[in-house]
Design brief:
The complex is a heterodimer of chains A (282) and B (188). Helices cover 39% and strands 25% of the residues of chain A. In chain A, helix 1 runs parallel beside helix 4, helix 2 runs antiparallel to helix 3 and helix 6 packs parallel to helix 8. Chain A is α/β, with parallel strands linked by helices and 282 residues long. Chain A has 8 helices and 10 strands. Chain A has a 4-stranded mixed beta sheet with strand order 4-2-5-10. In chain A, strands 6-9-7-8 form a 4-stranded mixed beta sheet. In chain A, strands 1-3 form a two-stranded parallel ribbon. The radius of gyration of chain A is 19 Å and the shape is globular. By secondary structure, chain B is α/β, with parallel strands linked by helices. Chain B has one domain: Fe-S hydro-lyase, tartrate dehydratase beta-type, catalytic domain (fumarase, Alpha-Beta Barrel), CATH 3.20.130.10. A 5-stranded mixed barrel of chain B has the order 2-3-4-5-7. The longest helix of chain B is centred in the N-terminal third of the chain and has 12 residues. Chain B is globular and about 50 Å long. Classes of the chains: A alpha/beta (282), B alpha/beta (188). The structure holds iron/sulfur cluster (SF4).
């Protein structure tokens, strides 16, 4: 029998605290690189100007006085827990929430959670959204995603007809991202979840936005679809900030799972150019 | 594409010279308001009460800034998505508001109001919030402090870079720009 490994939830709290602060002020390297590559290729002078402003924004933010975006997001956490882990020193989800609350307070980050109907702001950015997966092993992998409301609002799940197939999926994704246009702060990263069921399609779509940007899916069929969607979206003319140009999306990432014979669930989650995510393994 | 330096409050003369695609460097006072503040302002109007500030000639910036660090007037302050203000903007424009600053598309009703009452919708770069925040000179909450990031603030800005998105002639920069660049992408 595998040995059980104790992990203190205090360490989880500390990890969440650090990841949240880092995410708010420091753009992931791969996204900046993708933007610089796009800048070289870009032909619209306005788009170049917008991208230069985005680069400047990354520099200003890295001094840790002004976060990358005023919308410092909902704290979305993907937690992969090895099945041989035993959490000690309290309840895991409470610890995660404590880490989030402290980071958003100490880091002067915006508190963006509210009552859905009265719209009263809770003032602490809680609760965090936690997706937990049990995996083999005795490690805990934490991915912290600060998800902004603008790009999240331009996301959807659509129950497609099985006959829609590959081409129907491509068309639905492309049309949707073009319709969203300037709203989700392009250049965007498009996460797509195909199959599973209603809620799995959404979770896969969001998880897909966290892949290293532009890295193709290991599945050649999906990689080809990603490329086709990527080129079609960048041919829309929307451009950075929607002000015209050739850089509307930095990457399209698809995840796929088996589904029911009667269904074809499709999830589309858009991440903005400030796609803040950081991770750690405990 | 022309460039202008303008100072608030704006006049009809300021507005009619602006065309979609022009760049404006805006200085002076701008007021911040998002969904919750707009709901309250419109409710105040419905009840025959005054708005928290005189709206004539003013520009409203759709933003919910992050908290200010000690010694700074404000935190990061990029635009929020403007369509959520579609139900409110035409009414305020009719009362003399001259400009909105935000990101993303607004409604045809907003475009019509811009034409009828001479107003402009200015697009700012979403997610360039640290750059904008560090350019704000003063900030003061003047209404609805209980709304936190959504409270109405009076900002003083200097040369805030904006793009004229909807002008008073019915032009739409997003549509124009998209048409100009569609179909031109290649990986080479
Ligand atoms: S979509 Fe992203 S960049 Fe745009 S305002 Fe929201 S968090 Fe900021």
């Amino acid at each position: 029998m595998a040995e059980v490994r104790d992990v203190s939830v205090k360490d989880v709290e500390e990890a969440i605290y650090k990841l949240a602060l880092e995410a708010a002020y420091h753009l992931p390297e791969d996204i900046l690189e993708a933007e610089k590559k796009a800048y070289e290729r870009e032909k619209s002078p306005v788009a170049k100007k917008v991208l230069e402003t985005i680069f400047k924004n990354v520099e200003v933010s890295a001094q840790e006085e002004f976060p990358l975006c005023q919308d410092t997001g909902l704290a979305v956490i993907f937690l992969e827990v090895g099945q041989d882990v035993h959490f000690t020193d309290g309840y895991l989800v409470d610890a995660i929430n404590r880490g989030v609350e402290r980071a958003y307070k100490d880091g002067y980050l915006r508190k963006s959670t509210c009552h859905p109907l009265t719209r009263e702001n809770y003032g602490n950015n809680l609760p965090a959204i936690v997706h937990t997966f049990v995996v083999p092993g005795d490690k805990v992998r934490i991915i912290f995603d600060a998800k902004g409301g603008g790009s999240e609002s331009m996301s959807k799940v659509q129950m497609m007809k099985p006959a829609d197939g590959r081409d129907g999926i491509i068309k639905t994704v492309v049309d949707w991202v073009i319709e969203a246009g300037p709203n989700p702060c392009p250049p965007v990263i498009v996460g797509v979840g195909i199959g599973g069921d209603f809620e799995r399609a959404a979770v896969m779509a969001k998880h897909a936005t966290l892949r290293k940007v532009g890295e193709p899916s290991p599945d050649p069929v999906l990689a080809e679809m990603e490329q086709e969607i990527y080129e079609k979206i960048n041919n829309s003319g929307i451009g950075p900030a929607g002000l015209g140009g050739l850089t509307t999306c930095l990457g399209v990432h698809i995840e796929m799972e088996p589904c029911h014979i009667a269904t074809l669930p499709l999830g589309i989650n858009i991440a903005c150019h400030v796609n803040r995510h950081k991770e750690i393994v405990l | 594409m022309a460039e202008y330096k303008l100072t608030t409050p704006l006049t009809d003369e300021d507005i009619i010279k602006l065309k979609a695609g022009d760049v404006v460097y805006l200085s002076g006072v701008v007021y911040t308001a998002r969904d919750a503040a707009h709901m309250r302002m419109v409710k105040a109007l419905d009840e025959g009460k005054e708005l928290p500030f005189d709206i004539k000639g003013q520009v409203i910036y759709y933003v919910g800034p992050s908290p200010a660090r000690p010694g700074k007037p404000i935190g990061s302050a990029g635009p929020t998505t403007s369509y959520r203000m579609n139900p409110f903007a035409p009414r305020l424009i009719a009362l003399g508001q001259k400009g909105m600053i935000g990101k993303g598309k607004m409604s045809d009703e907003v475009k019509q109001a811009c034409m009828k009452y001479k107003a402009c919708y200015f697009a700012s770069i979403g997610g360039a919030a640290a750059v904008v925040g560090s350019a704000v000179k003063e900030a003061e909450i003047i209404a609805y402090p209980e709304l936190g990031p959504e409270a109405v603030r009076r900002l003083v800005v200097e040369d805030m870079p904006l793009f004229v998105c909807y002008d008073s002639y019915g032009n739409d920069l997003y549509e124009m720009a998209k048409k100009e660049w569609a179909g031109k992408f290649s990986l080479a």
